[in-house]
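Data deposition worksheet. Section B asks for the primary sequence of the deposited chain exactly as it was used as input, without tags or linkers unless they were present during the calculation. Section C holds the resulting structure in token form. Section D is free text for depositor observations; keep each observation to a single sentence. Incomplete worksheets are returned to the depositor.
Section A, Depositor: J.P.
Section B:
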Amino acid sequence: MERIRRLGFNVSRSTNDTRHFRRLFIMARICDVCGKGPTFGHNVSHANNKTNRRWYPNLQRVRALVNGEVKRLRVCAQCIKSNKVTKAPRRPASVPKT
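Section C:
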């Protein structure tokens, strides 16, 4: 919801509005860091027939530190490899009480 409001949309708390906006923004195949999205082109057959196709970025779900808080982001593999994202430390294993 924060991301939707940052984009300038005024959203009420009703569930119908929320579902609609989640479909529009959160499910998009876009990297949260660099903004990389699908690219378009053609499949070209041996007979030179061209049909439309899409190439999707290699998105991974990552727990990352953002302004000192741990958040889940969808980040492309290129951003992870180039250290544009600082991964959050692993959660400590729960210690049994004695």
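Section D:
The chain is about 20% helix and 30% strand.
The radius of gyration is 19 Å.
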